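Something for you to look into today, if you have time. What I am after is a single protein written out in full by you. I want to see for myself how the chain folds. Could you add the entry underneath, on a fresh line?
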Amino acid sequence: MRKQPRQERSRQMVERIVEAGRQVLVEDGYDTFSTNRVAAAADVSPGSLYQYFPDKASIVAVVVDRYVDETSELVAAALSDRITELGPAMVRDTADALLAALERDPALLRVVYEELPLGRTHARLTQVERQVRHLAAAYLGARPEINHRPDAAAAAWIMVLAIENLAVRWVLDRPDLTRDQLLDEMVALIAGYLLS
């Protein structure tokens, strides 16, 4: 953002702009996203928008950052809450929490994963994956009875990326697979990998 709003009225206007940015991004897609469309959707003048956002990329960045923050908080909280659990129940509950977080806004998830240039989202998504990987590696390191892999950090990297990609593709593609079936398969995948 170009500057931070100080007055309540300005903060409300910035929130309208960000929400309108999300709406335009989802409805029109990234290629036709423009500051003029956002300003119209937020019911503000383009000049008011430019006081806070220098270009469309800055609006997209705030929308994506908020989405990623909300999603990662939900997943990290689920993982932290289950850190004392053992085995399949922990994997299933954590994967279920990830699915629930991704299902909250599948339209924005589609834009983030399929429309935005990779350079705009890669660093932010990698940062979130790193946080979850560190939690998973700590969990695996403290539980040798359920982790037969020689390197907990490497195992965490494999697991996090596998579960994340399966969850994203399930939410976006809606294959002929129920949620329970997907969770069962995720548990089998991780259990087989960790105990092999």
Observations:
- The mean pLDDT is 89.
- The two ends are 49 Å apart (CA to CA).
- The chain has nine helices and no strands.
